[in-house]
Amino acid sequence: MSIEADCRSFVERAARELGRIDVLVNNAGVSGHALFEEVKDFAWYEQMMRVNYFGSLWCTRYALPYLKASRGLLVAVCSLAGKHGIPGRTAYSPSKFAQAAFFEALRIELRGSGVDVTVAFPGVVSTDIRLHGYGPDGGAAGRSGLDERGAMPVEECARLIAGAMQRRQRELVMTAKGKLGQWMKLVAPGLVDRIALAALRKD
What we know:
By secondary structure, the protein is α/β, with parallel strands linked by helices. The chain has a single domain (about 5-200), classed as Rossmann fold, CATH 3.40.50.720. Helix content is about 50%, strand content about 10%. The protein is built from 7 helices and 4 strands. The chain has a 4-stranded parallel beta sheet, with helices on both faces. Helix 6 crosses helix 7. The longest helix is centred in the N-terminal third of the chain and has 28 residues, at about 45-70. The chain starts with a helix and ends in a 5-residue tail after the last helix.
């Protein structure tokens, strides 16, 4: 996903073998967790942006003609970290903010084309993405920096996204805390900061 030519090849092969493209789900992503002052090598910041943002951008660009022909659906699996800056996620949050902003702008550009855009904002989901993501030195983190108690099961996350796709819903915030956080950020931003800090894993 971090190589434009590979994204183009993947989309064109899918269209060739299937005959059409009705839906593109941009789900590929990489995680990372480190306090900014702990980071020793910023190369993984760039790599994360290439996967989480540019991968979605490139796949979308090459799939768009097929989606217009089928009046299809674009889906971006973003993150609540793409709505709220999360401490320890100074690489991940910007990549997801960029992804969310891209699809929001594109949705408006595509108005009247027949192509709809759904952006999903899950919270913490029970996957190993944070274990395999980057740590301060650019190697695998080996642990999650977040408190994952109460994490959403993968099956539940997939079910909610599938439902939003069926409705061609423009945005899906997948947790009650996430929905509340959007309002609180407007009226009590300092409290949102404290809640974000509280989400960090305590050892």
